[in-house]
Amino acid sequence: xxxxxxxxxxxxxxxxxxxxxxxxxxxxxxxxxxxxxxxxxxxxxxxxxxxxxxxxxxxxxxxxxxxxxxxxxxxxxxxxxxxxxxxxxxxxxxxxxxxxxxxxxxxxxxxxxxxxxxxxxxxxxxxxxxxxxxxxxxxxxxxxxxxxxxxxxxxxxxxxxxxxxxxxxxxxxxxxxxxxxxxxxxxxxxxxxxxxxxxxxxxxxxxxxxxxxxxxxxxxxxxxxxxxxxxxxxxxxxxxxxxxxxxxxxxxxxxxxxxxxxxxxxxxxxxxxxxxxxxxxxxxxxxxxxxxxxxxxxxxxxxxxxxxxxxxxxxxxxxxxxxxxxxxxxxxxxxxxxxxxxxxxxxxxxxxxxxxxxxxxxxxxxxxxxxxxxxxxxxxxxxxxxxxxxxxxxxxxxxxxxxxxxxxxxxxxxxxxxxxxxxxxxxxxxxxxxxxxxxxxxxxxxxxxxxxxxxxxxxxxxxxxxxxxxxxxxxxxxxxxxxxxxxxxxxxxxxxxxxxxxxxxxxxxxxxxxxxxxxxxxxxxxxxxxxxxxxxxxxxxxxxxxxxxxxxxxxxxxxxxxxxxxxxxxxxxxxxxxxxxxxxxxxxxxxxxxxxxxxxxxxxxxxxxxxxxxxxxxxxxxxxxxxxxxxxxxxxxxxxxxxxxxxx
Length: 648
What we know:
It is a single chain. By secondary structure, this protein is an all-alpha fold. Among the domains are: 4-172, no CATH class; 549-619. It contains 31 helices and 2 strands. The protein has a two-stranded antiparallel ribbon with strand order 1-2. Helix 27 packs parallel to helix 30 and helix 28 crosses helix 31. The protein is globular, with a radius of gyration of 26 Å. It is a multi-pass membrane protein.
């Protein structure tokens, strides 16, 4: 009987094979493209399935998981055998599809079944259910009435499309992104933990905490953003960095709900940060048919604005939390100085090679080599152990191939929506209410995007939004790049949208806080960020970095001012506690920015910017007054201590 140790050894051997194969394919093309993609799909099924079996075989696994081991083993064996068969006869399939044999049909069916079962086990019933229903619709759509009725093709044609026979379609639709682009980049992200980079950010947090009450929040934002833009998933990023960052924030006086909100909102924004942007940026490039570097450049200002929103919210959150004080914890400065270069240099090479338009796999290959080499050049006490490296590589590989599983699953769904035209009909049915009104279309698009994303991973949500909603925004006159960023932005936000809010659920498991308390804190931090996509739709040159232009620059300044006023109003502090009337007055900032977007009257934005400048000066004055009140007061060449109280 297979025990925990034997299953784990088999999983580790498969992970080692996956890493070696993906590195080797960068150096030398072992075989053709479709063979490569089927082999990668086999690695996805093997590693993800064996990881589940390893988890289920642990001593603390539930009885239900133990009962499900043998059915999962059967699914894996059948799915891998079918994938191997399709891999071996790729050349024949290219010639004879869609006139496939009965054996080909059975093999394709087994691959589809294995993908859907694993998607259900890893990513939940919502995505798996959508994929399963889409296959039924592909086969029996001719039985439906109305606009969604279409003439179903033969079963052989359906299977050849869905199983990727003869081309990168169906289950292979997104595998090129996973195999060519994502695997090594996400492996790099996993090794950032294995080489103690994440621990370094914790030390940076201690250093910031010694000079600022919100230092631990800022450190958590930096760590989550740096790791999250590589992992490409809010939930995965919370699971990776959350145990360190959330625990640190709670230990230093932040509530569990607030700590969870800082982590999950930072993880949301990490998917916008170039040059990597997780999986979403590469999907945008594929949908637009442009080089990825153009998408990364377009993301620079929206990402900066989102991260600024989180930093401003963290500042006011710290000011509004009395128990969060400065700390004199010992900081391992030498550890920071020895560890930071391995991150900066390897990450800098990754960014540079992507900017020079080398492939993402090639850039990640050299970044990985530098990260490992520089990590072992540190003094002995700061070098990672082999156990730490393997743990990081294991996490990165499993995360990468779990995203590959998403790509295989949504490939089935995307193929059905495109081939049948159901995606167009669904979007037209919902968006027809907007007519020719761009503002109403954007509002409906926002709501639709958040609804589509409920319970779905960000890549799957964006892939559906790109088919259902984005074409109609383009028809309304929204530029293509802005329309795709608009949809992607709200696909990201669906991770904190109740009642599902999968990102918040992941954070509450670590923080121990209540679900709705964390949702409220996340909304306080991020709600004003909803204005960012509307701003770059009205001023699309924001996405044309560095050719932004004066009007777009002014719009960004107005938005930054609105964000600042929002933070002060929501948290009720501005160097001192604010009265209710003051908080209501400050909410005029976001309202006036909305008016500016609607009218584009410069005077409106100027008022918002001027009010924000006054706010900054008032806050600075209040903080200076506090410092003077608790320290000696200078009077010419003399100084006296200000008394703590004065009696009449």
